[in-house]
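Hey, I'm writing a tutorial for new members on how sequence and structure tokens pair up, and I'd like a real worked example in the thread rather than a made-up one. If someone can provide the structure for the chain below, I'll link this post from the tutorial.
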Amino acid sequence: MKKYFTIILIITLIAFILAACTGEEVPTQSNEAIMTSAVGSMVASFFGTQTAMYTPPAPTSTATATFLPTPTVNFPTATLGSTNTPTFIFYSATPGTITPTGTLPTPTINVASLAVGCNNLAFVRDVTIPSGTVLKPNEPFAKTWKVENNGTCDWLYQYTLMLSSGDAFSGKNTKIQKLVKVGNWTEFTIRMTAPGGRGKYTSYWRLSDGTSMFGASLAVSFTVAADPPAATPVTPAYP
């Protein structure tokens, strides 16, 4: 600080000397004003120097990271007692026959596949002697089916109902003797006689145009049972 005052005084003296040499009138100032100006210049120079020499410190973060505690999971420990005995189960495959159970689905017949040319026949229902009917040995009967002409041409008079498989049971191939239009229903009847032996019997009939059989098969199925024994008359006993 003393060094700065000395420099200021020297500069002031030099200024007075130069003014005296040049003959110019130097404005008079009070000693107080000169000292105030010198002190101000010194202070400004001092702080300017100190500012240039000052190196700001590196920023220091005061934030502190806080971490949550790590959760601890405790798993139960299985302890086997001395009385626990492992059990082993062995399976052996035994060859055998697999038998299906339940009701098997009934396949649906595509009626269009039964057609021959423009001719086709659809079965509607049994009119007489439905499946399972019980007949006596050698009992005559008439089997009647209701059918539909589901083809694309009419059935003519010479069309014939013919046996396709099984026993005819004394029945004969029979011409229909009528005109059946496309889409109409009609009935066919064959007269037959049941066999003399007991048992279950089945046969199948189909319609023919004289060249080929076509349409659904018409079945006749029945059971022949023996006649029940005749009742023995009871003679009342008189005392």
